[in-house]
Write a structure and sequence with these properties.
four-stranded antiparallel sheet; Dipeptide-binding Protein, domain 3; alpha+beta; D-Maltodextrin-Binding Protein, domain 2; SBP_5_CS; peptide transmembrane transporter activity; 2 domains
């Protein structure tokens, strides 16, 4: 499945659930809890609970130092863009995890916080009345080359994103909301007027045009990922993405620093000057693991943990693998089937919705949604570990999730009725319907070639749509190339399959607003924009109002269906018994326990990952 992350647009908040606290940005964490026996048969997919615990601890005498071996499931080579203002692919986020320290983070309610209590390198003060926040970096935080981290490094991140030669995708509403940002981007000023540094450069006050409700959320409206000015400022902004300082020798302020990078592995070594204390292990080796090799590698005890185990192989590991424990959780993400409805105007920074696009008829989109039996697809291909989505917000956000929506349950009769009434004639004796003008209709569907079952699922979609008379031709494309095509609005794509990882803030603007480059369907209407605006209005500081606005938006979006929310995803990770502690990073607020379970505190209880032949620690 092709995934991009919602919160990646705004910060390295919760950079990667694969990595524990104090290395994965600001929200993905590890914790310690007493290990108990797990009933590996207890998997209740009806209420989205996998029945596995979300954290483990192993007791024993730790070895001195040692190397932690992490497997990263990826069937395509990573792009290797290791910079928080430039990366877009989840695998790159994973590679950044050990080097990206916690600047700010999310508490138990996903509120953006800082301070020593959360192991953060900075603290934040809100001044809603003045439309300002002040971020102060604590003393003693260092980059991996020994230079001090300052608030000026945060300013530099804003300057890079706002630069006219910036090649990334993060310049949007969040940045435009900073006073003076658009003037800076247009070359009218050399600095950003709304950013004021203290004399010692340890604090910055950021002034906004508007103070919006989601600015209190981790991963919301405040960018929170500094980048080292002293290390990168001499590189032209347009060249940063290809620079060695980004791809070969990146630096951060997290507990580990990069030692070596190849196409299939990254080696990290402990950063002894880490502001929360030197790591207790010596090094980490993170290797790319093809989906086809995951199970055999675990039986061979090659890795200490792997996150996001392939659900199509659930039968091979659901009863457990000797030497390992399973960790389960419902993700804050969903897969979807998108319809291309326009183009992106890069000069204007706006979606250009095309009401005459091939897929612009809502009736056609709704019929294609009703044609799919996603419950059966989940059982057949994902062993019931995915669930038919009924909304564009997963139920992990229970306050905002609209549980009154039924989405598009499988109903081919209704699909045929919709197409008949909309004028898509199906001539007797013909295999496929005509378009509303009486011409042959061929729909081009593209999906990522990222798993063993990608083609089987594409074939299922094709057959389901053929059953209601739609001629859909499918193709598979390497994931990174598919993203490039989506961003460039390739003419060959009418429909595509992808996924969104929402992170800690469900505010939908960065995926769906008319000025978001991540609005891949290129859908924009006045009514839809008004509903988005309502979520971020002054009235939405009232929680009840904002909750209702979220639910109204979901109802409208599911009715218009510019993309079909297909499956909410669950995730299983597996952790070797020699690892002292682990929790999946989706659990909010665990950064507060950083002194007990940060990645720098993780220890190993044996020289090698344990297998069925290994003695207990």
């Amino acid at each position: 499945m092709l995934w991009k992350k919602r919160y990646n647009l705004l910060a390295t908040t919760a950079l990667m659930s694969l990595i524990l606290v104090a290395c994965g940005g600001s929200g993905d964490t590890g914790t310690i809890e007493e290990t108990s026996e797990v009933d590996h048969q207890k998997v209740d997919t009806g209420d989205y609970s996998l029945g596995y615990g979300d954290q483990v601890i192993n007791e024993g005498e730790p070895i001195e130092g040692g190397t932690l071996n992490i497997g990263l499931i990826a069937d395509s080579a990573w792009t290797g863009i290791l910079n928080p203002v430039l990366w877009t692919i989840d695998t790159d986020a994973a590679l950044m995890g050990p080097i990206e320290g916690t600047f700010l983070t999310g508490d138990e309610d996903y509120k953006l916080v800082g301070g020593d209590e959360y192991g953060a390198a900075a603290d934040i003060e809100y001044n809603e009345e003045a439309n300002e926040v002040t971020i102060t970096v604590k003393d003693g935080v260092k980059w991996h080359d020994g230079e001090p981290l300052t608030a000026d490094d945060l300013v530099f991140a804003y300057e890079v994103i706002g630069h006219p030669d910036y090649t990334g995708v993060r310049y949007g509403d969040t940045m435009k909301n900073v006073v003076g940002m658009e003037e800076y981007r247009n070359g009218e000023t050399e600095t950003i007027k709304g950013m004021t540094l203290s004399d010692d450069k340890m604090s910055v006050t950021i002034k906004y045009h508007e103070f919006k409700p989601n600015m209190y959320s981790s991963g919301g409206g405040i960018w929170q990922a500094p980048i080292p000015r002293h290390y990168l400022e001499d590189i032209p902004v347009g060249d940063l993405e290809q620079a060695d300082e980004v791809r070969v020798k990146p630096i951060g302020f997290g507990p580990f620093k990069v030692k070596n990078i190849s196409d299939t592995a990254v080696e990290y070594e402990a950063f002894t000057d880490y502001h929360l204390g030197a790591p207790k292990i010596d090094s980490i080796i993170l290797k790319r693991v093809p989906t086809s090799s995951v199970i055999s590698s675990l039986h061979n005890a090659e890795y200490d943990w792997i996150t996001g185990l392939p659900t199509d192989k659930f039968e091979n590991y659901k009863g457990g693998i000797p030497g390992y424990q399973l960790v389960g959780h419902l993700n804050a993400n969903y897969s979807y089937i998108g319809f291309k409805l326009g183009k992106w105007n890069s000069e204007e920074g706006q979606v250009e919705y095309d009401p005459e696009a091939k897929m612009s008829d809502k009736n056609l989109r709704q019929a294609m949604a009703y044609a799919l039996d996603l419950e059966t697809l989940s059982e057949q291909f994902y062993n019931g570990l995915r669930h038919r989505a009924t909304s564009h917000i997963p139920p992990t956000f229970d306050k905002y999730f609209n549980d009154e929506l039924e989405g598009y349950p499988h109903d081919p009769d209704k699909a045929n009725q919709i197409l008949d009434e909309a004028g898509y004639e199906w001539p007797e004796g013909e295999d496929y319907r005509l378009d509303k003008d009486g011409n042959p209709l061929t729909i081009n569907f593209v999906t990522g070639a990222g798993s063993d079952i990608a083609e089987e699922i594409a074939l299922y979609y094709q057959q389901a749509w053929a059953s209601i008379g739609l001629n859909v031709e499918y193709s598979l494309k390497e994931i990174n190339s598919l993203f490039d095509d989506l961003e460039q609005d390739a003419e060959a794509i009418d429909v595509y399959s992808a996924g969104w990882n929402i992170g800690h803030d469900p505010t939908p603007h960065d995926f769906h607003a008319p000025n978001s480059a991540f609005n891949y369907p290129r859908y924009a209407t006045e009514e839809h924009t008004a509903l988005l605006d309502k979520i971020q209005s002054d009235e939405a500081f009232d929680d009840a109002f904002r909750t209702e606005a979220f639910k109204e938006w979901q109802a409208f979006r599911i009715e218009e269906v510019p993309e079909i929310p297909a499956l909410w995803t669950t995730s299983l990770s597996i952790v070797n018994n020699r690892v002292s502690a682990f929790v999946h990073g989706s659990k909010p607020g665990t950064a507060k326990e950083h002194e007990a379970f940060g990645l720098h505190q993780i220890q190993l209880l044996a020289e090698e990952p344990m297998s069925e032949d290994s003695p207990a620690p």
